[in-house]
What we know:
InterPro entries: Uncharacterised_pept_Zn_put. The chain has 9 helices and 10 strands.
Amino acid sequence: xxxxxxxSFGGGRVRKGGGGKVAVGGGAVGLLVLAIYLFTGVxxxxxxxxxxxxxxxxxxxxxxxxAEQANTDRNCLYSATLxxxxxxxxxxLAAAGGQFSQPDAVTFTDAVATGCGNASxxxxxxxxxxxxxxxxxxxxxxxxxxxxxxxxxLAEQYVIAHEYGHHIQNITGVxxxxxxxxxxxDSDSVxxxxxxxxxxxxxxxxxxxxxxxxxxxxxxxxxTQAQLQNALAAAAAVGDDNIQEQSxxxxxxxxxxxxxxxQRERWFTTGYEQGTLEAxxxxxxxxx
Length: 288
């Protein structure tokens, strides 16, 4: 999914943070660590031992980016994708009678201090509810192939949109109402993650027809079939069953917290094709 020619995205949306020392894992994304932390959106304070010093909090931000830069520079892609997500979700929640607020966003390297505790790059992209912030080390996108996904713009944007979905759950009360401590194929933890996948699909199905109010052009060019397949492959790659297989263990649905590869693909597709909050209500169905 590429940004439309003529687009321009203001700076100041994504703060540059972190850059501290990592005591364990060296900042590399490992499959075992991914199995524990990837896409959690939960309190990370238990992982503080992995970080020696996240360093001072930066006051620098990703600067204004053109569409061309957003298509070639990952920090610009992060910032521009958030711009699109802001517009799509503010409109969607307003139409549903809900209240919208933007999440904060940080791009970091190695380590970062958050409202959920200190975290390293090994944590993968995540959303922290206490400080309502999305944290992404964009070097993570290079690791998608480890889990069997093809890298590409929409695959990367899916990751960001999924984490943004957790913010929507936070401001609509889903995070507070769900029991996110449980595990299992039918657990609330899985339902939270699959709903965030569905919300990511909603954004993907809408962004190419959503006009940036600042430029008057649509945010993104129409999705190609190849790009859609890349996003679906990314969703499948982070399925609990695939991660368990890749980490050398057997598949154990009782320990799932995110859903299977098939489920993650299917719920992303549901959001993409149906595009409604009602269709993404994973708590209202027995058929996950």
